[in-house]
């Protein structure tokens, strides 16, 4: 059953609101994905406070205009699914690109990060970045590595001093 004009206007308002609240948005071609694959992907993305929705390109273009985002109109041709990321900008993109790659179907069209329009190549580069947790672990490891080295050097001096004193004690006839 076709949507009424009021329903379409509500959809545009809803999409405009999502576009303004989202930290990053990705537009993807989902052709070839089964309903099971789509629902599995949606549930995984929901866990990361993201939404994956399928909307008509005309309504999406109207919402982009309302949100004052100038996306290339050629980028939204054919079936388009939209990923809205409200917390982490990168992790949901990684999930989406992994799902598309694992299933060998669909593709990334373009995206938006902090109001800047990104190409599909830039989105794929973002997806290859390490996650926040991995970066934090690398920083902590980078900071703690030299500290452990200093502790090891200081302990080695104490160990060597203890060894020398034990040797002197043995030479002097002590037990």
Structure report:
The protein has 175 residues and is an alpha+beta fold. It has 2 domains: 5-129, Alpha-Beta Plaits; 130-175. Helices cover 58% and strands 15% of the residues. It is built from 6 helices and 5 strands; from the N terminus they run H-E-H-E-H-E-H-E-E-H-H. It has a 5-stranded antiparallel beta sheet with strand order 2-3-1-4-5. A hairpin with a 2-residue loop joins strand 4 and strand 5 (116-119). Helix 1 packs across helix 3 and helix 4 (91-103) crosses helix 5 (120-127). The chain is rod-shaped and about 100 Å long.
Task: Give the gist of this structure.
With 175 residues, the protein is α+β, with helices and mostly antiparallel strands. It has helices at 5-21, 35-47, 57-66, 91-103, 120-127, 132-171, and strands at residues 24-29, 50-54, 81-85, 107-113, 116-119. A hairpin with a 2-residue loop joins β4 (107-113) and β5.
What is the element layout, followed by pairings?
Layout: H1 5-21, E1 24-29, H2 35-47, E2 50-54, H3 57-66, E3 81-85, H4 91-103, E4 107-113, E5 116-119, H5 120-127, H6 132-171
Antiparallel strand pairs: 1-3, 1-4, 2-3, 4-5
């Amino acid at each position: 059953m076709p949507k009424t004009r009021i329903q379409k206007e509500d959809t545009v308002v809803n999409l405009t609101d999502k576009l303004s609240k989202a930290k990053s948005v990705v537009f993807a071609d989902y052709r070839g994905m089964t309903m099971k694959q789509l629902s599995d992907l949606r549930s995984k993305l929901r866990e990361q406070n993201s939404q994956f929705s399928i909307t008509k390109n005309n309504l999406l273009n109207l919402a982009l205009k309302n949100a004052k985002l100038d996306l290339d109109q050629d980028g939204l041709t054919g079936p388009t699914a939209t990923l809205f990321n409200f917390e982490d900008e990168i992790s949901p993109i990684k999930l989406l690109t992994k799902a598309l790659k694992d299933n060998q179907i669909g593709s990334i069209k373009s995206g938006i990060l902090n109001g800047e329009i990104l190409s599909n190549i830039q989105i794929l580069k973002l997806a290859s970045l390490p996650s926040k947790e991995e970066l934090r672990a690398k920083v902590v490891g980078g900071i703690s590595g030299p500290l452990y080295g200093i502790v090891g050097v200081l302990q080695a001096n104490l160990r060597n001093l203890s060894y020398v004193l034990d040797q002197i004690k043995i030479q002097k006839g002590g037990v």
